[in-house]
Amino acid sequence: MQATVRLITVLAAAAASLALAGAAQAQGHGGPRGPEVHGRGPGPGLVLDQRFHHDHWYPPRGYVVPALPGGAIAITFAGGSWYFHGGVWFRALGGRFTVVLPPVGIVVPVLPPSFVTLWIGGSPYYYANGVYYLAAPGQGYTVVAPPPDADAAKPAPIQGTAPATAAKPPPEPILYPRNGQSAEQTEADRQACNRWATTQPRAVADAEVFQRAVAACMDGRGYTVR
C-alpha cells in the first residue's frame, strides 16, 4: 500500500510539472529534462516502456531537443542521417533534433545499454524502446520489423546482458579541445569521428573498440580524451 501511494505521488508530481511547462512541453517539445534521461526513474515528458518487462523510461516520439546528448552515434542510411544514444533515435529538424522511430534495415554498432532478449523462432531478438534488433555479424545490430508472434514471446530471464560480440559500452570519454575549438566545432568533429569509427575493423561489434577508435580520431583532430 505504501509503495502504491508513493507511485501515485510521483505520477501526480510529474503531471503537475507537465501542466506548468505549457502546451509546447506537453507535446514533447523542449521539456526540462532531455532525452539523455532514460532508465529506471520517471521524469517530465518521459514514458515508461513496460513491454516484456523492459521497465525503462524514454522520451516519446516527436520530442524535440536543441542538441544531441553527448556520445550520440551518427549513422548514415538510405541517403539520410540518424543519431542513436541510449536506445533513443533522433533526426535533425531545422537545427534541432527530434526523437523518431528508426527505419527498418539501419545498422547500429552497439545495442542500447538496457534491452530484453527474446527468443523467437529459434533466433535471439533484442528489444528496447519499441524497437527490435537482430545481430548482423561483422556490422553490429540491424533494426527489424516486429517479428511474427512477438506478443507471445517470453523474455530471457536476464535482461540487458549483451552477447559476447557486444560488450556494455565503457564510460563515456571527456573531450578537451587543445586548440580552443568551439562547442559547435567539437560536436561536428565528434560526429565525424563517430562515423569514421564505424569503418574500423571490429568497431561495429565491440563498443570498447568503437570508443577507442573515436578517441584516436579526436586526438588527431586536436582534442585530449580522458
Automatic annotation (TrEMBL):
Protein keywords: Signal
Signal peptide: 1-26
Pfam families in the record: DUF6515
Keyword Metal-binding: no
Protein name: DUF6515 family protein
Domain of life from the UniProt record: Bacteria
Biased composition (Low complexity): 153-167
Residue ranges of the region described as Disordered: 153-186
The keyword Signal belongs to this UniProt entry's keyword annotation: yes
